[in-house]
Amino acid sequence: MSQSVSRWLQQDSELLWHPYSSLTEPSPVRLVRGASGVRLQLDDGAGGVVEAIDAMSSWWCMIHGYRNPVLDAALHSQIDRFSHVMFGGLTHEPAIRLAERLVEITPEPLRHVFFCDSGSVSVEVAIKLALQYQVARGHNGRTRMLTVRGGYHGDTFAPMSVCDPVNGMHSLFTGALKEQVFGPQPPSGFDRPADDPELVVWAAAMASVAARHRDEVAAIIVEPVLQGAGGMYPYSPACLRVLRELADEHGFLLILDEIATGFGRTGTLFGSEHAGIDPDILCVGKALTGGYLSLAAMLCTTDVAHTVSSGPGGALMHGPTFMANPLACAVALASIDLLLSQDWATRVGEISRGLAAGLAPAAELPGVKDVRVLGAVGVVQLAGPVDLPRMTDAVLRRGVWVRPFRDLVYTMPPYVCSDDEVATIGAAITEAIAEGN
Hints:
Helix content is 37%, strand content 17%.
């Protein structure tokens, strides 16, 4: 390892806390020298560079790849005007245009937009909005969220409280978090019909939970059709229709967390479209800016917005410093326009078929529990925990970057991956698992 690289990595280990990592026993990290298209340039430790396909889209957000000329140009254009202004008492064209576009492409009832710094914050705002809505309607006792087991909604306190309380990443905080209402996890499998026996049993259980807690619950919150960081777990769109009916029956709001599923990842522009239902509140983030800057949004219906605005306080009680940052809004608008200017649905379908073909052989390997693909998401679930350093190294030797977690080796590749690159991703994961078993 060259002296300069060694120094940077030493400084990193002494100074920086990485996600879900120990400071005293950190996981290995690799120094990025550059990135272009779908490839990372990683320092090889000897003064050279190793290229690897980023099969993670930088945690699911870099859908157009790195150094995309359209997105680069949007940022250059905006920074020549101004990079940031406060959103209290001021506004600007990028925020207005982005809000118009989001209202245009999201489900019809959603007419109002609140910009946030990150996906987790958008969930915070959505939960806060639901609570204010119920207070404005005179239901002061409705202070809890109803959700399902297996979900993940972020790492700040309100989102942590609606993540799986037992098998999720936040069980350490039990007792400190708001105690929410949890129903059973939906039956696995995207293709289950509404009359599937297991789904019928699940629906009855959810109806029972909703009825028991009808006077306590303000809203239902779920990730539509794919639970992300909770386990990359697909479930039937019919379950969303059940939840929409329960919300309507009991006067709950329905919040859909589309931070991971939005902008085409599951094969429709938004996950809710698989079910043909509309939420009252929607959260989007991650791919919103094409991975360039942190930005998220919460959208809601006119009923929700006007009810809260006429209630106690007369306002939504939230206001981040970097809310509606002009640079982020400009690149987000460019990213959405770029996505919609292409036949993205066909491309996601091609990626889906490529991942299915590439990962299928892994199903026959010892130690593999399941292989599943939904849209541009491919997952190999092992029978036990992943050896993270070994698996990362094994896949990287085959020219692909992944970041496994728990018992999952998975990929969410950029939409601009070629068929050959998708095939390389599938083969690298399959071969690395075979090597380890």
